[in-house]
Design goal:
The complex is a heterodimer.
Chain A: E1 8-15, E2 26-33, H1 40-50, E3 70-73, E4 76-79, E5 92-96, E6 103-105, E7 108-109, H2 111-121, H3 145-155, H4 162-165, H5 168-172, H6 178-190, H7 198-205, H8 219-223, H9 230-242
Parallel strand pairs in A: 1-5
Antiparallel strand pairs in A: 1-2, 3-4, 3-5, 6-7
Chain B: E1 3-11, H1 15-26, E2 31-35, E3 51-52, H2 66-76, H3 83-102, E4 113-119, E5 122-128, E6 149-150, H4 156-170, E7 174-177, E8 179-187, E9 190-198, E10 204-214, H5 235-241, E11 248-249, E12 254-257, H6 271-274, E13 278-280, H7 288-291, H8 301-316, E14 326-329, H9 335-341, H10 343-353, E15 366-368, E16 371-375, E17 378-380, E18 393-395, E19 400-401, H11 413-435, H12 442-461, H13 468-482, H14 489-505, H15 520-544, E20 560-561, H16 562-565, E21 567-572, E22 582-587, E23 608-609, H17 612-630, H18 635-642
Parallel strand pairs in B: 1-2, 1-10, 2-7, 10-18, 17-19, 20-23
Antiparallel strand pairs in B: 3-6, 4-5, 8-9, 9-10, 11-17, 11-21, 12-16, 13-14, 14-15, 21-22
Helix pairs in contact in B: 1-4, 1-11, 2-3, 3-11, 5-15, 9-10, 13-14, 13-15, 14-15, 17-18
The chains are: A alpha+beta, B alpha/beta.
The structure holds flavin-adenine dinucleotide, iron/sulfur cluster (SF4) and FE2/S2 (inorganic) cluster (FES).
Keywords (chain A): 2Fe-2S, 3Fe-4S, 4Fe-4S, Electron transport, Iron, Iron-sulfur, Metal-binding, Oxidoreductase, Transport, Tricarboxylic acid cycle
Catalytic activity (chain A): a menaquinone + succinate = a menaquinol + fumarate
Pfam families (chain A): Fer2_3 (PF13085), Fer4_8 (PF13183)
Chain lengths: 245, 661
Amino acid sequence: MSIEKGRDITISVLKFNPRSKVSKPHFVDYHLEETPGMTLFIALTKIREEMDPDLSFDFVCRAGICGSCGMVVNGKPALACRTLIANYPTGKIQLMPMPAFELIKDLSVNTGKWMDAMSKRVQSWIVDNGGEEVNIAKMEQRVDPEVANETFELDRCIECGICVASCGTKLMRPDFVGPVGLNRVARFEVDPHDKRTAEDFYELIGDDDGIFGCMSLMACEDHCPKHLPLQNKIAYLRRKLVALR
Amino acid sequence: MKINYCDALVIGGGLAGLRAAVAAQKKGLNSIVLSLVPVKRSHSAAAQGGMQASLGNSKMSDGDNEDLHFADTVKGSDWGCDQEVARMFVHTAPKAIRELASWGVPWSRVKAGTREAVINAKKTTITEDEDRHGLITSRDFGGTKKWRTCYTADATGHTMLFGVANEALKHNVDIRDRKEALSLIHENGRCYGAIVRDLITGELEAYVAIGTCIATGGYGRVFKQTTNAVICEGTGAAIALETGVATLSNMEAVQFHPTPIVPSGILLTEGCRGDGGILRDVDGHRFMPDYEPEKKELASRDVVSRRMIEHIRNGKGVPSPYGYHVWLDISILGREHIERNLRDVQEICQIFNGIDPADEGKKGWAPVLPMQHYSMGGIRTKPTGESTRLAGLFACGEAACWDMHGFNRLGGNSVSETVVAGMIIGNYFADYCLANDVTIPTSTVQKFLDEQDAYLNEILAYNGSEDIFKIKNRMKELMDEKVGIFRDGPNLEAAVEELKELLVKTKQINVKSKERAGNPELEEAYRVPRMLKVALCVAKGARDRTESRGAHYREDYLKRDDANWLNRTLCTWPNKDDLEPTIEYAPLDIMKMEMPPAFRGYGAKGMIIEHPESEVRQAQVDEITEKMQAEGKDRHEIQDALMPFNLPMNYKERNERAGDK
Ligand SMILES: Cc1cc2nc3c(=O)[nH]c(=O)nc-3n(C[C@H](O)[C@H](O)[C@H](O)COP(=O)(O)OP(=O)(O)OC[C@H]3O[C@@H](n4cnc5c(N)ncnc54)[C@H](O)[C@@H]3O)c2cc1C
Ligand code: SF4
Ligand code: FES
C-alpha cells in the first residue's frame, strides 16, 4: 500500500497512581508517527499496546457518544476520542486527567461515581407525585412534538463531566451540583410527565451549592461537546427560583 | 474473603440488565447490578436509529400490529428464530415503549399536518391526522412492512439508557460500576453468583445470590473491524461457557453492516444510501449497479456488504494505512439536503476524518467498509430467559440467545429486545429468586475465589516471550479475514486451527508490570483467553454449519438447507484444558411453528433446500385459520390456536391502538 510517512508527534501524559506508595505525578513523553484520521483514542491505544502497557485511560464508545473519555488536552477539557491529532499544528499534545473528580490512575477519573451522586441529589427521574401506575397496555400520554423536542435537546447530556471540570465555582465549592446537575433539573422541569413544582425544585437546588452558586463564567457551555444551552437554562432556573427565596 | 450477599445479581448494566434489575427490585428483591463502566456509558448508548414497536400511530405505520411485526421478525431471522419468543416479544414491545415514555424518554411525536419526506429517493408529501397529534411517531427501517421504528431524533439508545438507568436509581437498585465478573459460582447444576474483580483496587470479591442474570452485551470486539464499543468483548458469555455446563448458541450468526467509516468504525446511517448516496471504488467508479442492477446500493445490508468485499477482492479497493476500503459519496445529494437531513453524518465525517461530505468530487467522499455489527448468538436460554442447563442462571439482551433474531436481526429490533427481555425475563428471574434459597456452603464460594486468585498469580508468573496485545490483534485480524462476511470450509478450518494456537500462546506471555491493581496488561491477559474461546465457538460453529442462513454465508454451500440445518448450534466447554468447544445441535420443531419456513422475500429465489414438514404444517395452519375465520374468531384467538404463548405480569393484555375500531 502506498502511503506517505506521517508527521512525528509527541504525546506527553501525566502519569500517577494514587494507590501506590512509590508513585509520584510525572510527565512521560511518547513519540509516534501520525496516521491519517488519527484521534487520541487511536494514539493512546497504540501507546498502550506498543510502548507502555501500564498506561490507564478510559474509552468505551470511541465515537463521542458515551462521555467516558474526558481529559485535559493542552489545557482544555475535551472528549479524547473526538480529538483529532491533525488539529494540533505543532504535533505536541499534553494530556492530564480532569480536575474536580477523584483520580483513579493516570488519565482515568471517577466521573461515574460523581454523576450517580448528582443524579440522586437532584432526583434525576420522573416524579409523578404518587400518581397511580400507568397502564402500559393503554394509549400513551400525548406530548406536543415541540415539547418532546425541547426535552430531548436537554436530555442529550452525556454526563461526561467536561462542564464540571471547566467550572470555576466547582473548584471553589466542592459540593456545587455543577452545570450538569442544573441541566438535569431544567430537563425535568420541561418534561410534562414530571409533576414537580418550582417549590419542589427549590428544595433540591435552592442554595449556594445549587442554582445560586453559579458565577456565570460560561466555560461550561464553551466546552460542552453536546452544545447544551447551559447558561440560558441556568439563568432561566435562577429567575424562576429566586422568586421563591 | 469478602462476600456480598443479595437476592438478584445482574451482571451488565446496559439497557437489558438495568431493566431486569428494576423488575427484580419492584418485586421486593434486593438486587445488585455490576458493570465494567458507569452504566450510562454502556454500549446501548450508541444506538441511534430506534426501537421497533407496532404502535401504528403515524400515517405510514397506520394498521400496524403484532402480527405484522411477528411476520417481519420471523422472515428477518431467516426462520432461525424461536417463534414463541418472537411472539412474546412483539406482544410486549408496545408496552415497553409506553413504559419508557412514562419514565421520561422523550420519544419524537406525531405532528398533525403535512410534511415532506423522501421515499425511494422521491419527494413525497405525508399528511398526519389531527387525532394522532402528540402520539409517539415512527420512521422507516429495512425489512419492515410498516414504519415501525420509534426514535428520539438520532440518539435513541442514549435517551433510553438514561431513562432506564435513572429509573433504576429511583428504585434504589444497588449499581456498582468498575466491577468485572471473572467466573460464575456454581454447584450441582445451579448457579449462585459470581467472582468479581474491582477494576480500581484490583480486589477479588464474591457475590453470592439466589439468581444470577448475565446481560453483558455482544462480542463484536473479537473482530478487528467493528461498530461495537471497546468493552463489547463477550466475556460475560465466556464465563457462562467456562462453567462447562451452560451452553452458548448460534455463535456463528454474526451481522455485518455496510457503511461504518474507516478507521474509527463509527456507523454512517443506512439513510445515506436510502436518500440516494452511492458507493465508489478506487477508480471513482460506481460499482453496485454492476453486481445488483435492480436494487443497486439499496439491496439488503448483508447483500451490499458482500458485494463491497467482493469488489475489494477483485482489486478495486482503495488502499489506506488501515487496509482497503471503498468510498461513500453523498455529495451528489447536494449541500442543502445534507445539512438538513444528514447533519449527524456530516458531523462524524468532519470530526473523525476532517472531511465535509457535502464537498463535491473526491474531496467529500467518506471511506467506508463493512464491519461486524451485532451478535445474534449468546447464552442459550429457554423462553423464560433461564439457561437450559444451568439452573438459576438467566441471560438477556445481546449477551443472550433468547433467540428472537435467529440468523439475522432487523434494525430497531435489538434495543427493543433489551427492554422487552428486561421486562419479561426480569420478571421470571425475580420469580425464581422469590421461590428459591441460597444453599451453598462458604467453602464452595472460597474454592471459586481461590481459583481466580491463583489464576491471576499464574498469569503474573508467566515467563514466556509472547505479547498479549499481539495475540489479541492477530485474533481480530484472523476473524475478519477468515470468519467474516464470506466464509468457506478451508478458511474456517484454518481459522479454528490458528485460534487454538493463539489460545495456547496466551500462557506463553510475559506481563511486564506485576501489580495486581491498575494494570491494563493484566486485564488483557485474562480477557483475551476468554475472547479466544468465544471466537472459537464462532469459527467452529461456522465451519460445521454447511449452509447459508441469514448473515451466515458459505460460498461453498450457497443454499439455506432446512432439510438438514433447521436447528440451533449449541457450544459447551466441558474441560478447562480443551482447546475447542464441543458442538451439538437442537432441532427447531416446524410442526409447532405459527409460520412454517418459506422464501424470505429478498435475495435470489430457489436457494432453499426445503424441509418436507414445511408444507404439511402450512396446510394445517391454513386449515385452522380458515375454519376459525369462518366462525368469526378474531386474530388474537386464531393466533392462540396456532401457537399459544405465556407472559408474566399482565403483559398478555391486548395493546390498545389509535386505529382500533
Ligand atoms: C453503532 C451501533 C448502533 C446501533 N443502533 C441500533 C439501533 O438503532 N436500533 C437497535 O435496535 N439496535 C441498535 N444497535 C444494537 C444495540 O445497541 C445493542 O444490541 C444493545 O444496546 C445491547 O444492549 P445490552 O443491554 O444487551 O448490552 P450493552 O449495552 O452492551 O451492555 C453491556 C453491559 O455489560 C457490562 N459488562 C460486560 N462484560 C462484563 C463483565 N465481564 N462483568 C461485568 N459487567 C460486564 C458492561 O459494562 C455493560 O454495562 C446498535 C449497535 C451499534 C454498535
Ligand atoms: S452538560 Fe455537556 S459538558 Fe456537561 S456533562 Fe453534559 S454533555 Fe458533558
Ligand atoms: S469514548 Fe465515548 S465519548 Fe469518548
